[in-house]
Amino acid sequence: MKLKSSSIFVNDLRLYAHHGVMEQEQRVGTWFVVTLRVHYYIMRAMKSDDIKDALSYADIVGVVKEEMAKPSRLLEHVAGRIAETILERFPQAQSIELKLTKENPPMGVDCSGAGVEIRCKRDADSDLVNNED
């Protein structure tokens, strides 16, 4: 069997955090939703059925929780930190797709959320590069 693509994912991880440009957002906080997919070669885990051969989504969630606990003004900054930390801690991670949504942001309109979405991959010259090439 030839494996064409593989990843682990976490959908709609809901966390309370203190990110935002406005002082009140940083003081009071609000709910955020994180969805991410981490691409890595899972063939060893498929064959061995051993957790040591897998990339643990529980460990990935731990990174997300850790980075979400650090207040930031911009969601772009938070998303970048999450992606960088995952690539630093898990050498088997090849690329990351991450969506970070702030529920009901203070924009003077009613919406279910707004946020950022990034796709990055490991590169020999730097930790993160644009995945559009």
How many H/I helical runs?
A: 4
Helix content percent band? 25-40%
Strand percentage, roughly? 25-35%
Largest sheet: spatial strand order: 1-2-3-4-5
- How many DSSP-defined strands? 5
Uncertain parts: 129-133
- Order of H and E elements: EHEHHHEEE
Shape: elongated
* First and last CA, distance: 28 Å
Class based on secondary structure composition and strand pairing: alpha+beta
Q: Largest sheet, described in full? A: 5 strands, antiparallel
Folded structure, characterized:
- It is built from 4 helices and 5 strands, in the order E-H-E-H-H-H-E-E-E.
- It is elongated, with a radius of gyration of 16 Å.
- It has helices at residues 23-28, 43-48, 57-68, 75-89; strands at residues 7-17, 30-39, 95-102, 114-121, 129-130.
- By secondary structure, it is of the alpha+beta class.
- The chain has a 5-stranded antiparallel sheet with strand order 1-2-3-4-5.
- The longest helix has 15 residues, at 75-89.
- It starts with 6 loop residues before the first strand and ends with a strand.
